[in-house]
């Protein structure tokens, strides 16, 4: 539906329609009070609980301010080099290099700000090579005091790591990135 057609239905959208979903495929015309955030083609949901009830973007379109889950989720980083150090705001690190990649995991604090931090690593290297890990001191998992678990990720596989306050532990390892069973991983 077009933004104009959606705007013509402003009176029909009240509290009982909270959560309604539409796909806007044309943004020509003027905006209304409820379509003010409809700025690009894509999916929108109706937020009747907002102080100013209106259509808000989510998923494949629109250009509204990131919602809270996007801030919590963190950055998606594509790594096309032999080494990478995970940064404070990284959430998903995807390797796309033509050889093995070494990921360095930082030592975090034993505070509420860091405990429970999750980082996902996906090995999408262009050759049949693994992603391996080091701690911030350059130690491998065999000698590290902060890396616990199996820390080798084969091509087309992934791992999910959590900071416990003293160690990085594997929640899920060698998830098949090409499997429907594991597709919720990324």
- Briefly note the structural class of the backbone: mainly beta
The helix content, as a percent range, equals: under 10%
Basic shape: elongated
Q: How many strands, what sense, and barrel or not for the largest sheet?
A: 6 strands, mixed
Distance between the termini: 30 Å
Mean pLDDT across every amino acid position: 84
Estimate the strand proportion.
25-35%
Order of helices and strands: HEEEHEEEEEEEEE
Gyration radius, rounded: 22 Å
Number of helices: 2
Q: How many strand units?
A: 12
Strand order of the largest sheet: 4-6-8-11-12-10
**Poorly predicted segments:** 66-72, 180-186
How many separate domains make up the residues? 2
Q: Would you write up a description of this structure?
A:
This protein has helices at 3-7, 68-73, and strands at residues 21-24, 42-47, 54-57, 75-79, 83-85, 90-95, 101-105, 118-123, 131-135, 147-148, 157-163, 168-176. It is mainly β. The strands form three sheets. The protein has a six-stranded mixed β-sheet, with no helix packed on it. Strand 11 and strand 12 (168-176) form a beta hairpin.
Offer a quick outline of the entry:
The chain has 186 residues and is mainly beta.
Descriptive keywords:
6-stranded mixed sheet
Chart the SSEs and their pairings.
Elements: H1 3-7, E1 21-24, E2 42-47, E3 54-57, H2 68-73, E4 75-79, E5 83-85, E6 90-95, E7 101-105, E8 118-123, E9 131-135, E10 147-148, E11 157-163, E12 168-176
């Amino acid at each position: 539906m077009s933004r104009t057609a959606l705007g013509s239905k402003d009176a029909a959208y009240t509290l009982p329609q909270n959560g309604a979903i539409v796909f806007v495929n044309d943004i020509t015309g003027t905006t209304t009070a409820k379509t003010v955030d409809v700025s690009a083609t894509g999916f929108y949901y109706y937020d009747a609980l907002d102080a100013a009830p209106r259509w808000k973007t989510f998923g494949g379109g629109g250009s509204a301010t990131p919602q809270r889950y996007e801030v919590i989720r963190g950055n998606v980083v594509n790594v096309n080099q032999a080494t990478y150090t995970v940064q404070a705001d990284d959430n998903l690190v995807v390797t796309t290099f033509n050889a093995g990649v070494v990921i360095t995991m930082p030592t975090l604090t034993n505070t509420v700000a860091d405990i429970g931090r999750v980082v996902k690593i996906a090995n999408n290297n262009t050759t049949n090579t693994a992603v391996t890990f080091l701690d911030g001191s350059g130690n491998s998992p065999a000698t590290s005091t902060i890396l616990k678990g199996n820390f080798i990720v084969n091509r087309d596989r992934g791992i999910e790591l959590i900071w416990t306050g003293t160690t990085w532990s594997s929640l899920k390892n060698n998830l098949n990135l090409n499997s429907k069973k594991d597709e919720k991983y990324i």
